[in-house]
Specification:
It is a single chain. By secondary structure, the chain is of the alpha/beta class. The protein folds into two domains: about 5-60 and about 310-415, Alpha-Beta Complex (Aspartate Aminotransferase, domain 1), CATH 3.90.1150.10; about 75-305, 3-Layer(aba) Sandwich (Aspartate Aminotransferase, domain 2), CATH 3.40.640. Helices cover about 40% and strands about 15% of the residues. The protein has 16 helices and 14 strands. The protein has helices at about 5-15, 65, 75-85, 95-110, 120-135, 150-155, 165-170, 180-190, 210-220, 240-245, 270-275, 290-305, 310-330, 355-370, 385-405, 410-415; strands at about 40-45, 50, 55-60, 115-120, 140-145, 170-175, 195-200, 225-230, 250-255, 265-270, 335-340, 345-350, 375, 380.
Length: about 425
């Protein structure tokens, strides 16, 4: 048991007795954090910083898996939640805040004419697919990217244990930026696809005309186009990736950026499709939970009032250009690259001839955590990230990248690594 993470490791041992993997969220579990060199529990956060249970301080570039857009403990969001708490959390009839948040989303998001709320991104994507199937009278779905834990999607991945084969057979992955591949897929099952759902962008920029062509192709085959904007929404632009790229889908789903970490998600779309929500069953006791909706209203108001998205992009660009320069400085182009949108960018780690990317990533995490930077290889920007935070990140990269270059030699890797390497899991991007 390491001294730096002594309490974390003790709590993990305790948690594993009552919680599978020791965490409610797969991406926060021991599968993602190498044992012996990682924190496992965070005690508190403020602005761009978090402190683990051992008292170690980090600049956080994970930010609640990109759900923290403004920063931890944003004062405007906190004030709105405290005010709502005085009125109540959940009631026997809707609170007016439901309508107010729906109206705000409709004012900000190009495709939104009507809105329904859930709690997680998986609620919203699953609701959108059920709605598309009801609207078209069809069953098959084409997917690109990650869309949550529900059977209809996760059955198409390697994490499909427990999903009926009949459900798996209805979901068909397709590659990004490849219209001919999608066309072939849709033609292989003519008249059977209810929806084409994708993250409008994650690691890779859409090729010129790709999203426009995808919309045209989807409609040509009689399906609905669904943008999963769980991450891109209220991050790429106030109206999401659909505003940034100028392509309006039939339906869109939102979650992480909606309420600065409070649990709420949304399905939004055209009235002609969304009216069918009155016929399908998409209903939650806590769908109208008022604290999270008050947080959402405060968060979106701040997005409209202050240069939040512009700041995410400006600060994120500093990281992307700075990291690229460091990769070139240390001759690491064979194993490292930079990709993504400035508000949600990636340091991609590749296999070396004699060392796997997972071994290198394990070493990367070990060294970044030790330097007070919390990252999983992404830079999920928040409005609270300062120039000093970016300098700390880039200084850490400047020290860690040459270590990774040396570790492409298995003998050197063994010298540096103080834990077992992570094992590959299913890949969705």
């Amino acid at each position: 048991m390491s001294d730096r993470y002594k309490k974390s490791e003790a709590l993990l041992e305790r948690a594993l007795k009552t919680i599978p993997l020791g965490s409610q969220t797969f991406s926060k579990s021991r599968t993602q954090y190498p044992f012996g060199v990682s924190p496992y529990f965070i005690q508190r956060g403020k602005g761009s910083r978090v402190w683990d249970v051992d008292g170690n301080e980090y600049v956080d570039f994970i930010n609640g898996l990109a759900s923290i857009t403004l920063g931890y403990g944003d004062p405007d969001v906190t004030a709105a939640v405290k005010a709502q708490l005085d009125e109540g959390v959940i009631f026997s009839l809707p609170h007016p805040v439901e309508m107010q948040v729906a109206e705000t989303i409709c004012a900000m998001v190009p495709c939104a004419e009507m809105v329904r709320f859930g709690k997680n991104g998986s609620d919203a994507t699953s609701g959108a697919i059920r709605l598309a199937r009801a609207f078209t009278g069809r069953d098959r779905v084409a997917v690109c990217g990650y869309h949550g834990w529900q059977d209809w999607y996760i059955g198409s991945t390697l994490r499909n244990r427990g999903v009926p084969q009949a459900v798996c057979d209805l979901t068909h992955p397709f590659p990004y930026n490849d219209l001919p591949a999608l066309d072939l897929l849709l033609k292989a099952h003519p008249g059977q696809f209810a929806a084409v759902i994708l993250e409008p962008m994650n690691i890779t920029q859409p090729a010129a005309g790709y999203l426009e062509g995808l919309k045209e192709l989807t409609h040509k085959h009689g399906a609905l186009l669904v943008f999963d904007e769980t991450i891109t929404g209220f991050r790429y632009a106030n109206g999401g990736a659909q505003e940034l790229f100028g392509v309006v889908p039939d339906l869109a789903t939102f979650g992480k950026g909606l309420a600065n970490g409070y649990p709420v998600s949304a399905v939004a779309g055209s009235e002609r499709v969304m009216r069918l929500m009155e016929e399908i069953f998409f209903s939650f006791t806590f769908g109208g939970e008022a604290l999270s909706l008050a947080a959402a209203q405060a968060c979106m108001s701040k997005l409209q009032r202050e240069p939040v998205v512009r700041t995410l992009v400006t600060q994120g660009e500093k990281i992307m250009s700075g990291l690229q320069a460091l990769i070139e400085k240390h001759g690491a182009q064979d194993i490292l690259s930079v990709a993504g949108h400035p508000s949600w960018s990636f340091c991609l780690i590749k296999d070396a001839p004699a060392v796997t990317s997972f071994e290198l990533k394990t070493l990367f995490l070990q060294e970044m955590f030790a330097r007070g930077v919390l990252t999983l290889g992404t830079h999920n920007m928040s409005y609270a990230h300062s120039d000093a935070d970016i300098r700390k990140l880039l200084d850490a990269y400047d020290e860690v990248i040459p270590v990774l270059v040396r570790a492409t030699d298995p003998v050197e890797l063994k010298k540096f690594l103080r834990c077992n390497a992570l094992e590959p899991l299913f890949k969705v991007r």
